[in-house]
C-alpha cells in the first residue's frame, strides 16, 4: 500500500480528473525539451517517458515541426487494484518553428530510454563560404 503524505497533490489530482484541467502543481501536457547546436546540426531532445516508439508522430510542414506522442494506460488484470495513478495519460504535442537555415529534408530521429532526439542539419546555403576574387585583366581602366 502507498502512503499519501501530500494532501495538496491529491486535491490537485482529483480536480484534474474532474475538470480535465491541470492545476498549479502538475503540468501533464508538458513535453520538456532541450535544444542546442552541435557542430553542423541542431539537436532537439524531448522527454517522453513511458511512451512507446510506435505512439510518436513527427511531422514537418514548411518550417513547422510538430511532435505528437500518446502515453497509453498500462493494462492491468482483474486481480489488480490501482492505489494511485498520477502519471498523465493521453496525447501530448509540441510545435516548433524552425529557421529557414535548417535542412528540414534531412531530419533524423532516434528514440532511446524515453528521450526522442531530433537532429536537424544546417542547410548548405546557410553555411559560411569563401568568395573567390576574380582576375580583372579583361577590364579596361577608366581614364586610360
UniProtKB/TrEMBL annotation:
All residue ranges annotated as the SHSP domain in the record: 24-136
Database matches in InterPro entries: A-crystallin/Hsp20_dom, HSP20-like_chaperone, Small_HSP
The protein's name in its UniProt record: Hsp20/alpha crystallin family protein
Organism: Streptomyces argenteolus
Family: Belongs to the small heat shock protein (HSP20) family.
Amino acid at each position: 500500500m502507498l502512503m499519501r503524505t501530500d494532501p495538496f497533490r491529491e486535491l490537485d489530482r482529483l480536480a484534474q480528473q474532474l475538470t480535465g484541467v491541470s492545476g498549479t502543481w502538475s503540468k501533464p501536457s508538458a513535453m520538456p525539451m532541450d535544444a542546442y547546436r552541435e557542430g553542423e546540426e541542431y539537436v532537439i531532445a524531448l522527454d517522453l517517458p513511458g511512451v512507446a516508439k510506435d505512439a510518436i508522430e513527427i511531422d514537418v510542414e514548411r518550417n513547422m515541426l510538430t511532435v505528437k506522442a500518446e502515453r497509453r494506460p498500462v493494462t492491468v488484470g482483474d486481480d489488480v487494484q490501482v492505489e494511485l495513478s498520477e502519471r498523465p495519460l493521453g496525447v501530448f504535442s509540441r510545435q516548433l518553428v524552425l529557421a529557414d537555415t535548417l535542412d528540414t529534408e534531412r531530419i533524423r530521429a532516434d528514440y532511446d530510454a524515453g528521450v526522442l532526439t531530433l537532429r536537424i542539419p544546417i542547410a548548405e546555403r546557410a553555411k559560411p563560404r569563401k568568395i573567390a576574387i576574380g582576375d580583372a585583366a579583361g577590364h579596361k581602366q577608366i581614364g586610360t
